């Protein structure tokens, strides 16, 4: 009967220490207990990384407060102080008042809070794909606010996004104090392209020469056309026999010259446009030059 009474008390205590579990998520107590025992054995051997995995598995299956204490202790040894503090604080607030486990958890949580430094990292949306955040030597998922407890030291916070300069900040974390870092929002990538490099100068000059010749041809053509029109009008207004017929013929000859010059000028202008718009663009490269006696920059490209 005494053995039965002790077993009954232990069972009741176990139920009292466990966090409530929804009825829709049945607990595999056997697997949770086995994972807990494996974690205890690994912790005794000093294999805390492996022990943390087992304790975390057990706590996921059955979030008992006793498992939370062991997981928190393991996480603290791994340097994951903020998660360890969260679990100690959870146990202290949910265990029965005055219970040794509650007092121990509160003591451990307060000790962590006093000896560690608290860091708050604030980030601003948009959180574009590829955004990464590193706090110290740990990768952290980007969020509007990240809180962490760390050992007092100089801490580097780095935020990166492909195509943008990286944001870097170093804070001096002091025990018991809070350091805050504000990560500015990364500007969205601009779709506007930068100015295009200039076209090859030799082709541009050649196109200008052809276009200039074409423009001159069109100007001369216009002059011949005006002169031919005037001469033709004068011959028609005052008929005078053979000399006037000669004037009309000369006007027609000038009109033919104007037409030829106009066609030639138009062809040259079109050719100039084709030469210009098909001219390749120059690229200029700047590279450092270092020799045993010289140091400088070299500019390579077509000019």
Looking at CATH, the homologous superfamily of the largest domain is Tetratricopeptide repeat domain
Shape: rod-shaped
User: How would you write the strand order of the largest sheet?
Assistant: 3-2-5-6
Question: Any low-confidence stretches, pLDDT <50, length ≥5?
Answer: 1-26
Mean pLDDT across all residues, rounded? Answer: 77
H/I helix tally: 8
| CATH architectural category of the largest domain | Alpha Horseshoe
Annotated CATH topology of the largest domain:
Serine Threonine Protein Phosphatase 5, Tetratricopeptide repeat
If you had to describe this structure to a student in words, what would you say it looks like?
With 303 residues, this protein is of the alpha+beta class. It is built from eight helices and nine strands. The strands form three sheets. The protein has a four-stranded antiparallel β-sheet, with no helix packed on it. Strands 4-1-7 form a three-stranded mixed β-sheet. It has a two-stranded antiparallel sheet with strand order 8-9. Helix 7 (201-237) packs antiparallel against helix 8 (242-277). It is rod-shaped, with a radius of gyration of 44 Å. It starts with a helix and ends with a strand.
